[in-house]
């Protein structure tokens, strides 16, 4: 019989295990509420993007649950303009995208939650994370968490989250690529790089949900990119709440990340809203990318 998440976490620091279990229970509640939280809100987030009802609700729900848990000191959320103070005595600091890919809700495509877990005060470098996790609302609810040198995946069942795979390693060679942004705004060097991938037989997979797209890279190998664009030299993805977390997961699975000039995890954040060009995937493909962009 497959291990439950609770049983599997017996090998993890007890405080961290308690936090992951708390977040797993939060994820189930959000899943149950999504059918009733559709439509646009009358507000914008700090990035000037129109918020959806589901975005705002998920953000507030997770924030309140983490505050009541007493485990989290501060929170950086995509939906909040400043660092949110939760509990002075909390052990952890959290980065959060409470509902990644929420524009997919209307078409019933994949959405998810992205969570970075730190003990250092935020903003901090991605390499300072003690764990990272994401929840994917796909054909089933899946939960992936990463700690140093180990990535494990669980699926939701009547018994709760049960182990699907542990010690996950990104497959070699990778077979997929997914790229955000308008193709006409790609840099010539990046466009040539993608053309070479296509010549090598790489298949395009892009679904508009960072969680969904990265889960495919984790399971099939390849590269995901939201690159530097002519009109957006820093790309679109947020360093703290999106790029760092996924870069950490893939690194623990044997992959790598880059801003085009070095590891995402080494970037010293200048603000909680900072964006970076984001390239994450197999080490070999990341190395080739950095060579192509020089």
Structure commentary:
The chain has helices spanning 5-8, 14-33, 53-69, 188-199, 210-220, 239-252, 283-293; strands at residues 40-44, 50-52, 72-77, 84-85, 92-100, 111-118, 129-137, 141-147, 150-157, 160-165, 176-179, 203-204, 222-226, 256-258, 278-281. The chain has 294 residues and is of the alpha+beta class. The protein has two domains: 5-165, Fructose-1,6-Bisphosphatase, subunit A, domain 1 (Fructose-1,6-Bisphosphatase, Chain A, domain 1, 2-Layer Sandwich), CATH 3.30.540.10; 176-293, D-Maltodextrin-Binding Protein, domain 2 (3-Layer(aba) Sandwich), CATH 3.40.190.80. Helix 2 runs antiparallel to helix 3 (53-69) and helix 4 packs antiparallel against helix 7 (283-293). The radius of gyration is 18 Å and the shape is globular. The mean pLDDT is 93.
Strand element count = 15
Order of helices and strands: HHEEHEEEEEEEEEHEHEHEEH
- The number of helices is 7
Portion of residues in beta strands equals 25-35%
Classify the fold: give the CATH topology of the largest domain: Fructose-1,6-Bisphosphatase, Chain A, domain 1
List the defining traits of the structure above:
single chain; 294 residues; alpha+beta; Fructose-1,6-Bisphosphatase, Chain A, domain 1; D-Maltodextrin-Binding Protein, domain 2; 2 domains; 8-stranded mixed β-sheet; 5-stranded mixed β-sheet; 15 strands; 28% strand; globular
């Amino acid at each position: 019989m497959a291990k439950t998440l609770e049983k599997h976490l017996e090998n993890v620091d007890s405080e961290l295990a308690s936090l992951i279990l708390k977040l797993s229970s939060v994820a189930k509640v959000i899943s149950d509420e999504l059918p009733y939280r559709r439509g646009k809100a009358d507000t914008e987030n700090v990035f000037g993007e129109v918020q959806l009802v589901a975005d705002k609700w998920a953000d507030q729900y997770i924030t309140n649950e983490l505050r009541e848990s007493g485990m989290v000191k501060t929170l950086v959320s995509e939906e909040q303009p400043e660092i949110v103070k939760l509990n002075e005595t909390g052990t952890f600091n959290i980065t959060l995208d409470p509902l990644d890919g929420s524009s997919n809700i209307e078409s019933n495509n994949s959405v998810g939650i992205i969570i970075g877990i730190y003990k250092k005060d935020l903003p901090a470098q991605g390499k300072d994370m003690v764990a990272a996790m994401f929840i994917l609302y796909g054909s089933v609810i899946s939960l992936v968490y990463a700690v140093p040198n180990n990535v494990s995946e669980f699926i939701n069942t009547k018994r709760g989250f049960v182990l699907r795979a542990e010690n996950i390693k990104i497959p070699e060679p990778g077979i997929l690529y997914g790229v955000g942004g308008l193709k006409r705004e790609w840099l010539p060097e990046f466009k040539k790089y993608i053309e070479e991938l296509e010549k090598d037989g790489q298949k395009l997979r892009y679904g508009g949900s960072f969680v969904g797209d990265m889960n495919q890279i984790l399971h099939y190998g390849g590269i995901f990119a939201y690159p530097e664009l002519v009109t957006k030299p820093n790309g679109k993805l947020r360093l703290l709440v999106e790029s760092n977390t996924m870069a950490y997961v893939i690194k623990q699975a044997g992959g790598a990340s880059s801003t085009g000039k070095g590891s995402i995890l080494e970037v010293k954040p200048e603000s909680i809203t900072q964006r970076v060009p984001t390239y994450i995937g197999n080490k070999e493909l990341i190395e080739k990318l950095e060579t192509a962009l020089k």
